[in-house]
What does this fold into?
Amino acid sequence: MESQKYFHKYLTKFIDLSDEEFNRYLMPVTKVRKFNKKDLLTKAGEVENFFNFICNGLVRKYYKKYNEEINTQISSEGHIIHSQESFHSRTPSEYYIEAIEPTTVVSITFEDLESLFLHSKKMEHLGRLIITYSLVIKDRWQIQLVKMSPRERFLNFVTKNPDMMQRVPQKYLASYLNIKPETFSRFKHLLRSHIKSIPV
Amino acid sequence: MAVDKRNINPSHLALAYSYLQRFMPIGAEQLSGLIPYCEFREFRKKEIIVDEGEIDNYLNMVIKGLVRKYIKVKGNDKILQLATEGHVVHSEISFLTRSPSLVILQTLEPTVLVSLSFQKMEEALDKFPHGERLGRLILTNMYIKKDERRYTWMAKSVRERFLDYLTHHPHMLQRIPQKYLASYLNIKPETFSRLKHLSKTKG
It folds into this structure.
């Protein structure tokens, strides 16, 4: 129940959604799933069947390039994570999705989501707003990768997500920010003096 | 730039329908309900459609021609998108969040766009019966494209990116100056020439 309530609260960032509406439309299709640390939510090669909202925990999305894991998303509670391309196009996922911490997600299957959109214009509207929001985030990330130097990406990320430095293993963060692990360590030293110089 | 709402070229209209039908199976008769919200805009070659710092007011689909979306990084242009017939192109963040554009949109060929202004889009989403669905499907498709492109950038080698692109878009080598293609694929111009030469000798 708590998990669904949290999801409901998240959705009201996009539209007004009464308890009655949430209970009618979303309650029947949401499913709470729990994962242990290191469990896979999605495997490469399988078609992603779930839309997931993280209620608590920490999850990463990555793909394998030769033997290296490249992280493309690291998300904590209050965020959406799934293999979108696979989910929407119904093709095998290129990505793995793995819990970094014990994690609880609220999930909706592709089939349920489609039928929700088909039966309610309001839900279709909500769906469009969420995908619009996701597209903007993806676009910002793309521009950041192209435009910012590794140093700028590092500072920008840790300033906005100070808690992530504690929660996420450094090698994942380095990969996510597309910074070499050695460079990442060096930047960490920078950070101490940098933070002191930022007025709070 | 010429705006022509009333006297729409029938072939442009037919193309608009067929491209929209790729997103959603819907008859031309029903789609015609969307046309009053749209503008058909024509641009010459090398015209700037949206400049850095401007708020992009349009969602566009290319009817004819070619548009590049790029960003200036330390004096260099980095191409983020090359949009041809049937593709959706605009400055997404600027359009959706009503903030100054970080990217520049420029035509590389004489181009015709079918465009929805932000305000008309809001109206169409509300009043055109299939608006929400069509809007969601177009956005979903953009999202998939963006995800694919990101995957290609990060997971594939220079050589793979080159070969993949030319396999899927063989005609683009004729349409686009090589330096633009190299920038789009994030390949150094010298490397691009070498790869092109190699692919020719292999037949």
